[in-house]
UniProtKB/TrEMBL annotation:
Region described as Disordered: 1-22
Key word Oxidoreductase present: yes
Domain Mannitol dehydrogenase N-terminal: 33-284
Entry protein name: Mannitol-1-phosphate 5-dehydrogenase
Bias type Polar residues, positions: 1-15
Superkingdom, natural source: Bacteria
Record family assignment: Belongs to the mannitol dehydrogenase family.
Amino acid sequence: MSTIQTKTQLNQETLPSLPVEGPAHDRDAITAGIVHFGVGGFHRAHQALYIDKLMRNGEAMDFGIIGVGVMPSDVRMRDALKGQDCLYTLTEKTPDGQHYSRVIGSIVDYLYAPDDPAATVAVLADASIKIVSLTVTEGGYNFDHVRGEFNLDNPQVAADVADLKEGKTDSLRTFYGLITAALIARRDAGTVPFTVMSCDNIQGNGEMAHRMFLSFANAIDTELAAWIDQEVPFPNSMVDRITPETTDDDRAELDYADAWPVVCEDFTQWVLEDKFAAGRPAYDKVGVELVDDVVPYELMKLRLLNASHQGLCYFGYLAGHRLVHDVMADQRFADFLLAYMEQEGTPSLRPLPGVDLDAYRHQLIARFGNAAIKDTVARLCAESSDRIPKWLLPVVRENLESGNAPVTLSAAIVASWARYAEGVDEQGQDININDRMADRLKENASKNREDILAFIRDREVFGDLVDNEEFTTAYADALRSLHEVGSEATLDKLLAR
């Protein structure tokens, strides 16, 4: 008779017996100092790792992280982390196939806010919490892409505004409501406010968060908004680490049971504006670059790395590739991305003294080709209606305005998105469009062949770009080519120019 071998479950009790390096610090000695909204793979591979590194050196023990989820999908993260004492495995994979795993112990609790919104507010309002950080995705900030204004018509936002006007906290639904309620409590108690630290891929992410919170607070009470404007810091930051979605294969590779391990590349970067109200961890001791102005670094990352991800994903998916490293194994994709970065992305950047941009561009190509992390093309294609307007279209607009660089390759990337949004690849396979605007995008793209500009007539996404002849000519040429000869031949034509 055969017996099924059950893996030992990762938790604080079993950790000493597991074949992996665990936290070197006494987790019982940790107190919470950070509350983080949006605990996903990236946060656990990035910000939580930096705190863990400090704790391993006996520092930042008062900056333990409490994770918070507000979306229905966050229930799964709550159950995974709470089931193993908020421990998880982080595995870094190098391009040459080496793996290094460790168990991270900087997260000390996880709250699913809908279970008890008032209790979540109470945690945030506690004077021990010095930083509230965010990785809520580019689409989580609830603003209009073209006008850049906060959407007060969002039903959940409107409900939270109404509740806070009445002083109610027991049914808050959004991170705006929860965080603002805690700021109200701290103001009324005379407690120093926490710092709100955005770590999302948005140009001027701290400034964006600042504007959105002020709009939300203004709808409740103008004096509250003025206090937040004066007292609450919103530092800008640039964060970078390629972190694919966790797969069952990632779980199976471990010799023990971890409900939600994280796999990432071996590169990591964090550039942070040093602007905090109630203190911060000694981030500079573990490699964080603390600077006065993050924006030039942000633009470098968003317009080279993130925009290049969009440059490879639609063309690559249409051509039949499903893993990013397979796309990059085709030299035409590497050549296309380098051409975009050199000719269109880089001219739109701010001065970065001491940064070797040519080395950075080639490093990106090498990182994209890391076969060990098995990043999926579909992940990069997801939520394009939130990503393209923030990462690529600013490059287009700046180059059109300045006249210092072409927009041919940027327009071709937009055209590849339009072709992808038609919902069928070049092999005739259906494409699952993972986007909050999926139905609308597919409807717009369904008209591509009868009206070559149909997709970019959506002014909520593209603004007035449809009125610009330089852009529309390049876009139309690329989209026609995608229809006539396909993605790979279109890239060849673009490179030949």
